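Figure 3 (text version): structure tokens given as input.
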């Protein structure tokens, strides 16, 4: 799953479809290295030159059953790494998959002991009581706006599905 480190979704797709373990722990530098990363951590940590490919890889890994809270690396969770590296686009993917919002995004006892509590998006998730609650509140707000305008065209349950898909409910 080193494909995750270079943001290569085509290779990652082939590996996952061939049965690669989405939660396999991979040595960081050499086969004898005791320090390991999961492919998900690699995809979050990927060099920004390959970031567009890593989004697709993260989606694939999570759909393949990757743990959204894999073992910590350097005392950081995968969500802490995503916050630390300002990978905002992947926050909702991780949160929807069950990643836990950290108290300290830079690691425990870090010199950069800031919290995610200053980001407006993460503040909304905290205020709602978690990502699932935020997603539900977001959909409820959108339904209040759009359902009256579309229920004469389609059944109300289809309006909700349309809104979930069209507006990426919970993603902003």
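Below: residues designed for each position.
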């Amino acid at each position: 799953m080193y494909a995750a480190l270079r943001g290569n979704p085509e290779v990652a797709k082939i590996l996952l479809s061939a049965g690669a373990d989405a939660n396999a722990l991979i040595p960081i530098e050499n086969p004898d290295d005791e320090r390991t990363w999961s492919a998900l951590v690699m995809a979050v940590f990927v060099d920004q030159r390959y970031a567009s490919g890593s989004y697709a890889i993260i989606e694939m890994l999570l759909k393949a059953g990757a743990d959204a809270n894999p073992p910590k690396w350097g005392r950081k969770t995968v969500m802490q790494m995503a916050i630390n590296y300002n990978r905002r686009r992947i926050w909702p993917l991780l949160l929807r998959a069950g990643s836990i919002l950290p108290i300290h995004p830079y690691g425990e006892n870090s010199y950069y002991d800031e919290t995610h509590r200053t980001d407006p998006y993460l503040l909304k998730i905290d205020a709602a009581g978690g990502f699932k609650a935020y997603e539900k509140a977001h959909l409820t707000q959108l339904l209040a706006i759009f359902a009256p305008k579309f229920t004469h065209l389609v059944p109300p349950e289809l309006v909700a599905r349309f809104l979930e898909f069209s507006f990426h409910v919970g993603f902003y």
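Strands lie at 25-27, 36-38.
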